[in-house]
Design goal:
Layout (H helix, E strand, L loop, with lengths): L6 E9 L2 E9 L10 E6 L7 H16 L14
Antiparallel strand pairs: 1-2, 2-3
Length: 79
């Protein structure tokens, strides 16, 4: 069975009232109880609310990884 990738979504307000989604992937190297993440994808377009950016980020994850979710070997990679 393929392993599930550790993908996180966060929302950043780059300008007042302009929210962007960001997808991050955990990378090896747990240090001092800190799990490092690396940028995977980000929105080019800003959204008018945190909620709208979040919904669009989740929609992007579904497009990238499909119905099975972020399984190893599926979607974009950090390489």
């Amino acid at each position: 069975m393929p392993q599930l990738r550790n993908i996180a979504i966060t929302i950043q307000e780059l300008e007042p009232g302009e929210f962007h989604w960001v997808l991050l992937e955990a990378v090896e190297g747990l240090k001092d109880d800190v799990l490092p993440y690396q940028l995977l994808e980000t929105s080019c377009e800003g959204y008018g609310s945190y909620a709208h950016a979040h919904v669009m980020g989740v929609a992007s994850m579904r497009r990238l990884f499909g119905a099975q979710g972020p399984m190893a070997g599926v979607g974009p990679t950090l390489d």
